[in-house]
Design brief:
The structure is a single chain. This protein is of the alpha/beta class. The protein has one domain. The chain is 47% helix and 18% strand. It has a 7-stranded mixed beta sheet. Strand 6 and strand 7 form a beta hairpin. Helix 1 (2-17) packs parallel to helix 7 (148-158). The relative contact order is 0.15.
């Protein structure tokens, strides 16, 4: 009951705010960023710690500047997610451009299934527009939320233009079902998630730190002969984005172990270092690193 009440109040507020023009929503965003930095610090210690470890060559003053810009973008993405409730496809298409969509269409014509890997960078939620630009069926792998009402809300938002949300625990089975139907698919993963400690199978170096990784794309691509692309996204200006599909692995049956993971994190790190304020620094992504380093010493 309490989950329903929180959802009802939150969604009602979000629904009302989403009718506001973008310029007004961005004023709210600036206010929220100010509050989260100065008044009600939101994970400030985690953010500054992550930045200090990721950019040891930068001074603390530079870390703080990046953190402040992060808060503004973090609040912007929340407001942009709200605006999606009522935004039509024409307005979406002006704000979120896929620069090499013909590349996807060529892969579709050749019957290739695709795994698309992306990170928590810029505005990843608006990737839900992709079904408007390609004949591929789009599957979005997601982690189920504890609050089932919020879970339904995000499924509804992500599926607005035809994306099919798929819980991660059902991903392999559902992908196989689509392949049996010979329905070409793009399956996208937010692949920079942190696995639970007891589920970690592989570590890589990412942003100057030992980082545990999820291996869904690594295991599924060779098993099901799916090419792997990286989703490169660039914020052009506030509320406007451009994206490019970057080939990582075109012949998954002929790759070395963990090649997909290494290439993914190399591309993600390069993108982050270009504009670090657009990455999700508030997530405690390196929570297990100290425990890992201690295990190496023991």
């Amino acid at each position: 009951m309490i989950h329903w009440f929180i959802y009802a109040v939150s969604f009602s507020l979000i629904w009302l705010l989403s009718w506001l023009p973008s310029r007004i929503l961005y004023i709210f965003s600036d206010l929220c960023a100010f509050l989260l930095w100065y008044v009600f610090p939101y994970r400030k210690k985690v953010i500054l710690k992550n930045l200090a470890l990721s950019f040891p060559e930068k001074k603390p003053e530079e870390h703080r500047k990046i953190a402040k810009r992060f808060y503004h973008h973090f609040c912007d993405t929340f407001m942009e997610a709200m605006s999606a409730i009522h935004m039509n496809k024409e307005k979406f298409n002006r704000r979120y451009r896929f620069l090499n969509i013909d590349y996807l269409n060529d892969l579709y014509a050749s019957g290739k299934d695709i795994i698309l890997v992306l990170g928590h960078y810029a505005n990843w939620e608006w990737l839900s527009l992709l079904p408007l630009h390609t004949e591929y069926t789009i599957l979005a792998i997601y982690k189920t939320l504890h609050n089932k009402f919020f879970d339904r809300m995000f499924i509804r938002l992500r599926g607005k233009f035809g994306v099919v949300p798929v819980p991660k625990e059902k991903a392999l089975r559902i992908i196989i079902e689509y392949q049996k139907k010979r329905d070409p698919i793009i399956t996208y993963f937010l692949a920079d998630q942190r696995p639970r400690w007891n589920e970690i199978q592989y570590w890589t170096t990412f942003m100057n730190q030992p980082t545990p990784v999820i291996l869904g794309p690594e295991k599924i691509a060779p098993k099901l002969d799916m090419v792997v692309l990286f989703f490169h996204i660039k914020r052009v200006r506030r509320g406007f984005y451009e994206s490019t599909f970057v080939p990582l692995v075109m012949e998954p049956a002929n790759i070395e172990s963990y090649e997909i993971t290494r290439k993914y994190y190399q591309n993600l790190e390069k993108m982050i270092r270009e504009n670090p304020e657009f990455y999700l620094w508030s997530h405690d992504r390196w929570k297990h690193t100290k425990k890992y380093e201690q295990s190496l010493k023991s």
